[in-house]
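If you are new to this repository, start here. Below is one unmodified record pulled from the training split, so you can see the exact layout before writing a loader.
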Amino acid sequence: MSSIIKVGKVQSSTGNDAVTVADSGIITMASGNGYRFAGMQVFTSDGTYTKSPNVSAIYVIVTGSAGGGGGGADNWNLGGGGGAGGTAIKWITSGIGTEDVTIGNAGQGGATQNDGTNGQNCTFGSSGGFTQLVGGGGIKGGAGNTYVAGNSLGGTATGGDINIPGGDGTSASGGDIADESIGGVGGASYWGGGGKSGSAYGNKDGTSARVYGAGGGGGREEISTAASGGNGMTGIVVVYEYI
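And here is the target side for that same chain:
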């Protein structure tokens, strides 16, 4: 479900100053006829962006959904944290109209001795006069008994003026003593850090991420104690509108 948040125009006491973005990509304060912030539309599930009246420019942030953390395995093996979603950011002044928004599913944490699942892409645009923005989904965290290269990587991003990879989750690792280190931490997204890992002292399950696009934490299992990975967090699309 999408939500629309309307905010008053940002102006100085003279009523003329406004935030604008130069062709160089540098954000500056412009006076006179510069762009003025009019509101924003926020999507956390599939929807359709429709330009509000009089809008002439938009600033779009697209973050992919994150991977889930891996579960632990016998003898203190530690699941990896899920990779975070990548983020594409773009300033658009032409071809603005009605655009599709897709929010892919977040990855789920793996049960004991199982990998998490991958996060999916989030996208903005398909019919406008600009390149589709894609925030790539984060890769799953590996289970504590599957130390596979490529697990826990953050997602990529395409189409933006700025494309920011998602943070990698901490890799799975193994041990055979009760005081082995904690499990994998979920990767950080553009919006913040991932879920924490399971602990040798207290909750052994990985924590689910609470920040958009951030990875779930890995679980830490002992000899007879099950430990699951935490879930990744879904991505988000934010469209700031200017007149």
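Two things worth knowing about this chain: The first strand starts at residue 2 and ends at 6. The mean pLDDT is 83.
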